[in-house]
Amino acid sequence: AGGCCAQRWYDINADVVFLQRDDSLSTVYYASDGINGPPVLGTDSLGFDEAGGLRISAAMQLGAGNSLESTYLGSFNWSDQVSVESPTDNLFSVISDFGQNPFGGFDDTDDAAYAALEYSSSFDSVELSYRQRWVAPNCKLQGSWLAGVRYFYLTEDFRYSTVSFVRNGAMDYDIGVSNSLTGGQIGGDLWACIMPGLSIGGELKAGIYGNRATQRTHIDAVSFGFPVDEKVTETTAAFLGDAKLTLLWRLSQNWTFRGGYMFVYVDQVALAAENFNSAPPFVNDPLRPRIPRIADNSDVFYHGAHFGLEYMW
Questions:
Q1: What single DSSP character describes residue 3?
Q2: How would you classify the pairing of strands 39-42 and 169-195?
Q3: pLDDT in tens, 97-131
Q4: Are 66 and 6 in contact (CB under 8 A)?
Q5: CA-CA distance, 65 to 115, in Å (whole number)?
Q6: Hey, is 222 helix, strand or coil?
Q7: What does the alpha-carbon distance between residue 7 and residue 132 come to, in Å, rounded to a whole number?
């Protein structure tokens, strides 16, 4: 029942996935020690640890060697925070060009004792694909091709906070972005039978997507009568591809262990930290006008191990 000539099949599989998130985040400094002093707080201090999530897939046979597959990948959440304190109330903000414009800075962001950055990110993905399988005459190789649709939802939140006891000021600058990617994908897999019940293989999928990206900014400060709220939405083309290397070990007629490594790459998306606008919200500065905008040309790369079981009845 588990020989090399048996066509690959499962009814449902579930994996625990541990992904590392890498991105093309620009280095931006938010606080300096003194007016135009050395930077002491920036995005280069932020970093995401590995996060755990789930991958669940189910297949329904349509005919000889073909099936309809649905897959969910998600429940990941990456987060990090970093802060700096000044016992001499000597932190100056990027919003005032580090205390240079205007000289001495603003009440809510400069002569500060405390400044902090917080960053979080998550995604969920749902796929529906048609797959056609084949087996080579010698049974050592088999594979498939697939075509289908996919929805990928990426959300992020970024906060920049300051507290100035000298000026009785404080500010919370919050940015939230969402990326709704919808499109078609094509791909396939290839498997090699090492021995009956033990196989190794890889899968590759890629597609072009329409990305409806939204950026929301909310700024609240002690000096404000009302918070500043901004929202920008834009639809652009995006790319999404993923790949997996997997080892299958058949434990019984019904159960198979699976483990391997996977990669997910997404291009032309909005990341929260990339959408920070340093133009001051406190005054109308004609040299630095505050114009709401969205930056949705970033990319993000995920990679990590996955382990799980397949069930066939």
A1: S
A2: unpaired
A3: 999 999 999 999 999 999 999 999 999 999 999 99
A4: no
A5: 59
A6: coil
A7: 11
- Summarised one tens digit per residue, pLDDT across range 296-306 is 999 999 999 99
Pull the structure tokens for residue 145.
């091709």
Label each residue of the chain as H, E or C.
CCCCCCCCCCCEEEEEEEEEEEECCCCCEEEEECCCCCEEEEHHHCCCCCEEEEEEEEEEEEECCEEEEEEEEECCCEEEEEEEECCCCCEEEHHHCCCECCECCCCCCCCECEEEEEEEEEEEEEEEEEEEEEECCCCCEEEEEEEEEEEEEEEEEEEEEEEECCCCEEEEEEEEEEEEEEEEEEEEEEEEEEECCEEEEEEEEEEEEEEEEEEEEEEEECCCCCCEEEEEEEEEEEEEEEEEEEEEEECCCCEEEEEEEEEEEEEEECCHHHHCCCCCCCCCCCCCCCCCCCCCCEEEEEEEEEEEEEECC
Q: Are 124 and 153 in contact (CB under 8 A)?
A: yes
Enumerate the H helices of 223-285 as residue ranges: none
Q: Check residue 197 and give left, alpha or beta (phi > 0: left; psi -120 to 50: alpha).
A: left
Answering whether pTM is above 0.85, one says yes
